[in-house]
Write a structure and sequence with these properties.
This protein is an all-alpha fold and 351 residues long. The chain contains 13 helices and no strands. The protein has a domain of 111 residues. α4 crosses α7, α4 crosses α11 and α5 crosses α8. It holds the Pfam family DUF975.
Length: 351
């Protein structure tokens, strides 16, 4: 059995008996975002401050950005802070729930609020995600600066020849591709950090990041391919995206049919998500556990050894759960039942 298949199989086995909880967690995680959006909408309606949108449909959006009201900026910052202070510990709690579930722990749905229970845990989750976000932002800015410079040079050289402009556009496209690849690689560096915090809750945020970068070294490509192996589950969304791209070029006569098909695809994706989100979350947590156990145990030469070492842990857990159920004792033979071969008392068949 290949590594990816083994990890996904173990993930499904780890979720056995907890699919309802996993779906409940998925639904609960959506509620804070919806409430925050409603709160922002209510504040803007009451205060009469609209968000920045170039509603006239004319003019330069960047020129209009200079006219954004300070009140609108303040509301946006307030909502962003609410999202960070509420959603970050909640998402970290969800990651912890799946990580512990792959280790055989049967936490209830309330386990996702673990980082709200103590001030130390709450601020540690915030600080870890803030440091990761800050690193990602700095890398993004570093990769964006050359693109901005290329854009500026292209605008200055407006009178340049067609060949020069074409070369500059090609160079910008190549740099965008390189920047996207680098951002993905940088993001994969911090893949293990949230799981390590769940594994070692007393570690400081910087130590968690350093340890995670060390343990994921040499596995970033494998983690990326593992995440990419779920892409077929998103086929309805991919088809819907293609439909959206072709809507402006479609015949108005078929626009209604295209819109209906788009709605069906999105509903299909929503239905798939009730299975996909818990399955993918558990699979990623299983891979994180595999990498952490492999790294902290000194490493292995072949993935099969580590996978076989992990699977008995799930087996022992399932066996322990089964052993807790009282075994049914077979009924004792009824006197005379075997000799006579007839019915026992009350008309029951002999044992």
């Amino acid at each position: 059995m290949g590594l990816f298949r083994a990890l996904k199989t173990n993930a499904r086995r780890a979720l056995a008996g907890s699919w309802g909880r996993a779906i409940g967690i998925m639904l609960i995680s959506v509620i804070p975002g919806v409430l925050i959006n409603l709160l922002e909408y209510g504040i803007r309606e009451v205060s009469g401050v609209s968000e920045f949108v170039n509603r006239s449909g004319t003019g330069n959006a960047f020129r209009a950005a200079a006219n954004i009201a300070p009140a609108s900026i303040a509301i946006t910052l307030l909502v962003s802070l609410l999202v960070f202070f509420i959603m970050t510990p909640l998402q970290q709690g969800i990651i912890r729930w799946y990580y512990r579930r792959t280790g055989g722990e049967r936490d209830g749905v309330t386990g996702i609020f673990h980082y709200f229970e103590t001030a130390a845990g709450y601020f540690r989750a915030l600080w870890l995600n803030f440091l990761i976000g800050l690193r990602m932002l700095l890398w993004t800015l570093l990769l964006t600066v050359p693109l901005v410079l290329l854009t500026g040079l292209l605008s200055v050289a407006g009178g340049a020849g067609r060949a020069t402009r074409t070369f500059a556009m090609l160079l910008m496209f190549v740099w965008m591709v390189i920047a996207c690849v680098v951002i993905v690689i940088v993001g994969l560096r911090y893949f293990l950090a949230p799981y390590l915090l769940a594994e070692h809750p007393d570690y400081k945020a910087r130590a968690v990041i350093r340890e995670g970068v060390k343990l994921v070294r040499g596995y970033k490509g494998s983690v990326f391919l593992f995440a990419l192996s779920f892409i077929l589950w998103y086929l309805p969304s991919l088809l819907a995206a293609l439909l959206v791209l072709f809507i402006p070029f479609s015949d108005p006569f078929y626009l209604f049919q295209v819109t209906g098909l788009l709605l069906l695809l999105m509903l299909a994706q929503l239905g798939i998500c009730f299975y996909l989100v818990p399955y993918q979350s558990a699979s990623l947590a299983m891979y994180a556990r595999y990498l952490i156990q492999t790294g902290e145990s000194g490493g292995v030469d072949e993935y099969g050894d580590s996978t076989r070492e992990y699977k008995p842990e799930i087996d022992r857990y399932l066996e322990a759960q089964a052993s807790r159920a009282p075994a049914e004792e077979p009924p004792a033979p009824r006197p005379g039942g075997e000799e006579t071969g007839g019915s026992g008392p009350e008309g029951e068949a002999p044992v």
